[in-house]
Amino acid sequence: MTTTLARPEGDLTQELRLRLYRMQTLIREAEQCAYDLFLQNLVKGTSHLSLGQEAIAAGFALAMQPGDLSFCTYRGHAHTLARGVPFEKVLGELMSRDNGLMRGKGGSMHLTSVAHGVMGSYAIVGAHLPIACGAAWRAQYRGQSDVSVCFFGDGTTNIGAFHEALNLAAVWKLPVVFVCENNLYMEYTPIGEVTAVEHPAADRAASYGLERIVVDGNDADIVFRTASAAYARARAGAGPSLIECLTYRYSGHSRADPAKYRPDGELERWKLRDPLPLYRRRLLELGVPSAVLEHVDAEIKSEVQAAAAACKAAPPPPADILYTDVYADGGAAWRN
Amino acid sequence: MDVLMPQLGETVTEGTLLSWTRAVGDPVEPGDVLCEIETEKTSMEIPATVAGVLAAIRVPAGEAVAVGTVIAVIQERNAQASEPTVAVAVAPAVPLPQRRTAASQFGPGRLADGTEITPWARRLAAQAQINVAQLSGTGPRGRIVGRDVEALAVGPYAHTPHDVIPLAGMRRQIAQRLLAATQTIPQFHLSVDVGVDALQALRASLNAAPPAAAAGAPASRLSLNDFVVKALGVALMRVPEANTVWAEDRMLRFHQADIGVAVAIDGGLITPIVRHVEAKSLAALSSEIRELAQRARARHLLPAEYHGGSISVSNLGMFGVSEFSAIINPPQAAILAVGAVSRVASETAAGGVQFESRMRVTLSCDHRVIDGALGARLLAAFREAIEAPAALLA
Amino acid sequence: MAELSYRDAVARGIAQEMARDPDVVFLGEDVAKAGGVFKATVGLYEQFGPLRVRDTPISEQAILGAAMGAAMTGLKPIAEIMFADFAAVCWDYFANEFPKSRYMTNGQVKVPLVVRLGNGGAARFGAQHSQSVENWCMMIPGLKVVAPSTPVDVVGLMAAAVRDPDPVIFLEHKSLYASRGEVPDGELLDRLGTAKILRPGRDATILALALMVPRALAAAERLQREHGLDCEVIDLRSLVPLDTQTILGSVARTHRLFTVEENPRLCGWGAEIVSIVADESFYDLDGPPVRITTPHIPLPAADVLEDLAIPSSERIVETVRRAMAA
What we know:
The structure holds three protein chains of three kinds.
Chain A: H1 14-39, H2 54-62, E1 69-73, H3 77-82, H4 87-94, E2 118-122, H5 128-142, E3 148-153, H6 160-172, E4 176-182, E5 185-186, E6 189-190, E7 213-216, H7 220-235, E8 241-246, H8 266-271, H9 275-285, H10 290-313
Parallel strand pairs in A: 1-2, 1-3, 3-4, 4-8, 7-8
Antiparallel strand pairs in A: 5-6
Chain B: E1 2-4, E2 14-20, E3 27-28, E4 33-38, E5 43-47, E6 52-57, E7 64-66, E8 70-76, H1 119-127, H2 146-154, H3 169-184, E9 187-195, H4 197-208, H5 224-238, E10 244-246, E11 251-253, E12 259-261, E13 263-265, E14 268-270, E15 273-274, H6 282-297, H7 303-306, E16 311-315, E17 334-347, E18 353-366, H8 372-387
Parallel strand pairs in B: 12-16, 16-17
Antiparallel strand pairs in B: 1-8, 2-4, 2-7, 3-6, 4-5, 6-8, 9-18, 10-11, 12-15, 13-14, 17-18
Chain C: E1 2-5, H1 6-20, E2 24-28, H2 44-48, E3 53-55, H3 60-72, E4 76-81, H4 91-97, H5 101-104, E5 114-119, H6 134-138, E6 144-146, H7 151-163, E7 168-173, E8 180-183, E9 196-199, E10 204-208, H8 212-227, E11 231-235, E12 238-240, H9 244-254, E13 257-264, H10 269-280, E14 290-294, H11 303-309, H12 313-325
Parallel strand pairs in C: 2-3, 2-4, 4-5, 5-7, 6-7, 10-11, 10-13, 13-14
Antiparallel strand pairs in C: 1-8, 6-12, 9-11
């Protein structure tokens, strides 16, 4: 199919924009599929969805280079998909099947793919911020040029490990980028009710000698540019960045939460700034034929459906992996 | 497709259907709210996830059902072929890491009269087959402790100064197997004196040969026992019915001569098997026996190296023992006990006196497999082979 | 051969490994320029420089988190937590992050690091700076836990810990830092998971760890001299992996078991071992197994009170004597 190349706007080529569109669409469809399968009791346990926050994951991931490392929270499906991990493996993990990313041993909150640079999803709030510092320290120590990117929510900015990590990163000038996805709620509570400053991340930056950065997290282009600039600073040895991305989540904190604590109209107002339709409109304005976008949509739908079918047919993990990989020798023996 | 009561909340096990927003027959699109449900924690709207028609409502408003219950059915517009239901496999039970708890219990910790007895004392008593009731305890409150049992187990020697030698694995094995052999095998013994002058001469000449002077020249000295083993191998080939063992409900007759050679080692003895003796040269036999003996003394033999065989050789000649009968090594059917060589006087054909070197050997036989005449024939063949030793060079 | 103090042995062990492998790095509070508050890491900063030996802020979570991130991505970090009691401040990393990442990620993530802790009491530091936390660490699946009692063991076990691909908690005893012992020259490498029979004996097995080891040895001497009891003293050295075979072998010979534990009573490390012996060697026991422990109280600061709480040689002698004679 031939496409007319629109004039690229600034530094963002059309090809890049299409990739951003594709990734956000994948995340949206994938999360929706996970939700539907949860209602069918096929996705087990707890899950934390990123519906509405696709632009952040896509923008930061696509600005990374191979070798860059990412660390995220238990709301990590989007960040895992954004680094190129196949949806089938992510869904398999959510559905507790043997074809899952970790064969069902980690679950939704711990999605990890070292091969893709996804160095873990972390369930304890704040735990991964110092860990990301450590990965960045290693890069600095060895003179390597990779960047560690660390995603967390607004609630994290009030936990001790946040402050310890920011301080250490700033003092040691580590090549780490801290990304706060401010979706306005710390679990069930509005972040404003529990935080001493208005912007939970950006208004703390000065405490660590860092620049105050707040961006519209629902615009993938803005996110991409912000990310690129932060990565370049880190690679140049200029140290860490703290970036607050404003966004909104459509579903509750987790499966158990229908989010009734939201004031009336808030969800509807944010849906007007839904990253997907916003980006779609922009591409159309830039001259991308809608047929191209529909083609991407259809491809994604089919990919997601195929993944769901494959996972439904996949067996559960075998019992013998219960005892594997506690220790480096592959087993669980604590005694002779 | 079935619409299920979802797992709303990690610890929730059931939910209540509050109200239906759609009725049977209504068309639905993905995202359309079907009903509202409630759990102890919260209430939530349930959307349709496929397009189609609401075909059935299974749970009426107001009813509470378990998570996973089908609450409605949607007739899908683009009904796909029914999806393969993955039989949720019952995972095979994983054996827990090996439990090492003692298998038997050795009786209660308190006797009928209230006397306490420690676990160790109980075990000792059980293993020594001592009746605990006849023990008197020297522990706290009259408790029977280990030393009380040990004293009795030693019995008549309780007052003679002694060291207790715990039973090592090999000693236990030897005790068990040879006791079993003596109790279960009907053994009889045949002795014969064999003349070894010709053999000694042959041996001396072979040992004097310069190394590599001839094919088959030994790397080091051949021993008398090497010849004995070889002769026995030759004899077994000549009397194949004797190359047989008892196997409970049948007998096994072999085509090759696998002969055990008893080796004394620290703490006991072990009998490595030399296989295919009939096919090996004296030199090969000699170095193999030497190597096996060395490894036997170093405790480096593998089980395959001392299991099997049809007959063994035990030689106490080097200690000056003139004759003895050995105990058969099960599952073998015979054993040849070799005594020391001595000079004896005998009558010559011309009526005079000559001196010859003789060695007395005694063959113990399992009468279930080897009758007297057969044993005698084997022994005779052995003697022939020793006394006409050129055959051993083949 | 040279006589070294336990604290110098720590520096020697770390230096040996840092010299051997450029991926070994070391971080902690006051560890670099000051050589450590207990002077256990003197000379490392001078020898290996500021890139490999780093002073950190007072940020235990950041120290351990950074160690983990570096370990996950290829380095072999040694992190110091100054007082073992502070493990509680960064317990998330001990309990949730280090030991579970390999398992949860199905073997993808590796955490080859060592955390050194200043463990134990008898130094009059008071309840929050004197705890023995080896039992806290023992009960987390996925950690390895060692506690040497002599300078030579410090060096050898430090080397083994650094080279081990799993997270190892290395418990140094604060009151042993000044103790001295012979340490051979050259590279030393011990093995985790191995206990040592320091004093063979026939009448009873006494298991001890760290500071309790010299006290158990002194007690065994007196028990022999004054009461004719010949006790076998075992330095456990490693709680995880546990050298169960040495313990069971000893009980099979002596038929009596005593543990000497500095940790407080409940769920101390000896409880697990007594449970194993009661299960697997019940019929080797000629009397009840006895645990000699600090009572289940916070440790007092006053010297006379602390000495009553932590097991002393006198208490060991008296407890064993009474149990054996009863």
